Amino acid sequence: MRVDAPRFVRRRLGLTPLIDVIFLLLLFFMLSSTFSRFSQVPVEGGAAGGAGGKRPDAMISVRAGDVRLNGEGIETGAIAVRLAGLREVGAENLVILVEQGATSQDFVSVLEAASQSGLKVSVSRRGG
């Protein structure tokens, strides 16, 4: 009795699984390369220099999650309104003091609100 060997049919290689794997690899590399959140990058200030002898009209202190205007705690969203009020009563100069531990997102939020106020803004830092 003669037994014929089964015929192997050559199957075409499907592209769908290959495309799926490529997209999974792309997704993996995109997610693994962005672990450093922008708000967690430490803020570096400039070197200390000779400040003019004029005292600032207002001072904003920026710490990690805490913003103070002239020593009083304030929400980031209310800074622009308060600075506009100070501008109306004659304030001209504003110093933003970036404390150690402040994140760049805290600083940028304050700086954005301060730039809308029309005051002359200076930035300083405290701490190592």
TrEMBL record:
TM region positions: 12-31
GO BP annotations listed: protein transport
Cellular component GO terms, alphabetical: plasma membrane
Localization of this protein: Cell membrane
Origin superkingdom: Bacteria
GO MF term (any one): transmembrane transporter activity
Cross-referenced InterPro entries: ExbD (IPR003400)
Membrane topology: Single-pass membrane protein; Single-pass type II membrane protein
One Pfam family per UniProt: ExbD
Main localization, broad class: membrane
Signal peptide extent: none
Keyword Transmembrane helix: yes
Sorted UniProt keywords: Cell membrane, Membrane, Protein transport, Transmembrane, Transmembrane helix, Transport
Sequence similarity: Belongs to the ExbD/TolR family.
Protein name: Biopolymer transporter ExbD
